[in-house]
Amino acid sequence: MINKETSEYENTLAYIKESLGISSGSIEKDTSILDNYYSVDITLRPDFILSDGDTTYLIKVRSKVTIDTVARMNLLRELWVRNEGRKGNLRLAIASKYFPEREKQMMEQLDITMIKLPWSFQSATAEQSQPVSHRVTAEKSWKIVSRLLKEKNSSIRQLSLLENVSYGWAHKTVQALIRQNIVKQDHSRVSISNTDKLLNGVAWERPLVSLKIHEIRIQFSESSHAAKEITETFAMQDDMPVGFTAYTAASLYTAYGVRHDSVYLYLKDEHIRYFRELFESSSGDGIKAIVYRPDRDVFRDTREKEGVRLVSPSQNLLDLAGMGYSAMDITKEMVSVYDKL
Predict the structure, then answer these.
(1) 3-state class of 118 per DSSP?
(2) pLDDT exceeds cutoff 70 at 272
(3) Can you list the positions of beta strands (E) in 15-142?
(4) What is the DSSP letter of 280?
(5) Which of 75-89, 266-280, 283-297, 312-326 is predicted least confidently?
(6) 55, 54, 56, 57: which is closest to 16 by C-alpha?
(7) What does the pLDDT look like over 93-102, one tens digit per residue?
(8) Is CATH 1.10.10.10 correct for 139-193?
């Protein structure tokens, strides 16, 4: 946070207002009002909240923008909408001296405004938050978490054995969640006590949008038909790996009704060209294929359901949670049936 007693605060605020075209009559709000919006043990508070007419601006100032910065702001927007509704207009902005290309693309996709600060600006803001020492979305950690969701109540040793993860890692994962009041312990048994807090933490730590690499129009009018055709075609090419995820997989795992104008899948980089050659629509018509780049072995433990190759229930739940508030209903449905999958 920027110290309000410094000239830097006034200079930065004035520059941001000018960049955004905010009127001199705008009202600055206390950022502490956001503390009641979330229960996760992470800092989501912006540096400025400005109200100008019916538009509210949530603004973060950073010397360098990271994926972490963008993800936190996106999660903050979802929590704001959940608590305040869609009254008026809400705009997010990040002011920084440097925006890496990857982060710029993410901000454009998420409709977060970039404000380029002059290099001459002095920065007394706090350094970027240090990453947590133990990430719940790390591959081995998520094995323990998803197993605990399935078992509902277990010992740490049992979780370790069932998922073939070392006891030390399993213990460290569970203890990290206990400290965040996500898991509770009763003697030697542990269970998840706050699913909402767990899902919010996943959305912040591993936003699925950060893995999105392509959005391709394909020659299909309906998503289930597209998923079946793509699965069959890839299987015929020496079982070339493909894994459908997010809404596509969740609708088959849960029978929950979802929109049918897109399919969501993981592909390896070297197979994108092949996919485009076979399925891309030359006219621009058809449904969308949202393609993600794997950040782990998502093709392991895939399963076929109704002719569609799906990522594992564990991976699908991780991906759904990474979609944040927009997919919260189907994510909770996935959690409710997870022990039966």
Answers:
(1) coil
(2) yes
(3) 27-29, 48-52, 55-62, 89-96, 112-116
(4) B
(5) 75-89
(6) 57
(7) 999 888 898 9
(8) yes
Question: Is 7-116 in CATH node 3.40.1350.10?
Answer: yes
* Cβ atoms of 262 and 287 closer than 8 Å: yes
Distances (CA, A) of 111 to 70, 74, 106, 264, 284: 11, 9, 8, 21, 23
* 315 closest CA partner among 328, 336, 334, 333: 334
DSSP state of 220: -
Q: Could you give the CA distance from residue 62 to residue 172 in angstroms, rounded to a whole number?
A: 31
CA–CA separation, 174 vs 156, rounded Å?
8
- What is the location of CATH 1.10.10.10 in the chain? 139-193
Task: Please report the pLDDT score of residue 26 as a whole number.
Answer: 82
Written as six digits, the tokens of 1 are 């946070």
CA geometry: angle 296, 299, 300, nearest 5 deg: 90
pLDDT digits (tens, 9 = 90+) for 182-238: 999 998 999 999 999 999 889 888 999 989 999 999 999 999 999 999 999 999 988
CA distance 78 to 37: 10
